[in-house]
Amino acid sequence: MDSAPPLVDSRYKNPDNDPRGAYLLSDLTAPFHRPAMTYQLKGHMPPAGRSWRYTQEATAALELDGRIVFPLAGRPRLKRYLSEVIPESKAWTATEASSRLEVIVRTAMKAMASEIANNPLTLRYVEWRDLERVMREIFEELGFTTELTRPAQDGGFDLRLETIDDGEPCVFLVEIKHWLPSGQKPGTKTLSALIDVVARVGGPTKGLLLSTSGFTRNILSGRTEVEQHSVRIAGQSKIVSLCQSYLESIEGIWLPTTHLSEMLLQGSR
Questions:
Q1: What is the band of 92 on the pLDDT scale with cuts at 50, 70, 90?
Q2: What is the pLDDT of residues 30-57, one digit of tens each?
Q3: How far apart are CA 109 and CA 132, in angstroms?
Q4: Can you tell me the distance from the alpha carbon of 230 to that of 209, in angstroms, rounded to the nearest whole number?
Q5: CA 214, CA 236: separation in Å to the nearest integer?
Q6: How far is CA 204 from CA 66, 164, 198, in A?
Q7: Burial track 205-217 (b if 16+ CB lie within 10 A, e otherwise)
Q8: pTM
Q9: What is the mean pLDDT of residues 234-249?
Q10: What is the pLDDT of residues 126-172, one digit of tens each?
């Protein structure tokens, strides 16, 4: 029978008529101290020697999903639903587990995009792969068809974007360099590699190199007019601007005033 044992069932309640059903409240802290996991959560801090169980971005996603409860007294608690209890006789298939994890990750990335829009300084603390995932969520919300490449197998770019402008397909290969924490800056070698990739793909394809740490002074030296038309570069301000457009879009106050391809390249060079 596909149900949790009665002993487990009795621990789950639904005092606030949560549509997801009965749940129990669990500890939101971990039994060790990690500086990156120690932050203020609506006026609450983890006890001495402990830290929050999740990153600030993941916690924000859980709060947005209504899974965190803030009691009148005591620390915030996490809702764990009875429907998520998996009996030993009914384990998830690999496909179900993968799909579930994908939803969790993408929800967290959307929360991270909103956080960057509201507080650009948080960009420094975002992992490089997470930033690629964040940008995927942003571009999809703004209207692009997106494809996120696999790490170390990206073929020279991180995201493939596609849109239709005046009935014509427009394709962009986006390479993201998140070297802000180290202070390194991409230069001519990085740009040339993306130019070569775009040239190999051909057709209505252009490239965009985004960097959170800026670029070396000579990155554009020697670039031909054709190369300048095919691949553009943009820095941290463009990334933040895209995050802010994303936030305005989900709040229903952003409407494109130009073609998506023009919007994407605004502020680039």
A1: low
A2: 776 777 788 999 999 988 888 888 888 8
A3: 9
A4: 11
A5: 7
A6: 43, 11, 10
A7: bbbbbbbbbbbbe
A8: 0.62
A9: 92
A10: 999 999 999 999 998 888 889 998 876 557 899 999 988 777 888 99
Residue 1, pLDDT score: 41
Can you read off the two tokens belonging to residue 195? Answer: 């130019």
Please state which CATH number belongs to domain 111-265: 3.40.91.30
CA distance 178 to 162: 23
Where do the CATH 3.40.91.30 domains begin and end in the chain?
111-265
pLDDT (tens digit per residue) in 177-221: 999 888 899 999 999 999 999 998 888 899 999 999 999 998 888
Confirm if 40 and 50 have CB atoms less than 8 A apart.
no
* Count of beta carbons in the 10 Å neighbourhood of residue 40: 10
Residue 256 in contact with residue 222, Cβ under 8 Å?
Answer: no
Tokens found for residue 179: 């070297």
Tokens coding 110: 């959307």
- Confidence check: pLDDT of 254 > 70: no
Which of 259, 262, 202 has the alpha carbon at shortest distance from 226? 202
DSSP characters over the chain: --S--HHHHTT-B-TT--TT--EEEEE-EESS--GGG---BTTB-PPTT-EESS-HHHHHHHHHTT-EE--SSS--EEEEEGGG---TTSPPPHHHHHHHHHHHHHHHHHHHHHHHHH-GGGGGGS-HHHHHHHHHHHHHHHT-EEEEPPTT-STT-SEEEEEEETTEEEEEEEEEE--TTTT----HHHHHHHHHHHHHH-SSEEEEEEESS---TTTTTT--HHHHHHEEEE-HHHHHHHHHHHHHHHTT----SS-HHHHHHTT--
> What's the CA gap between 23 and 9, in Å, rounded?
9
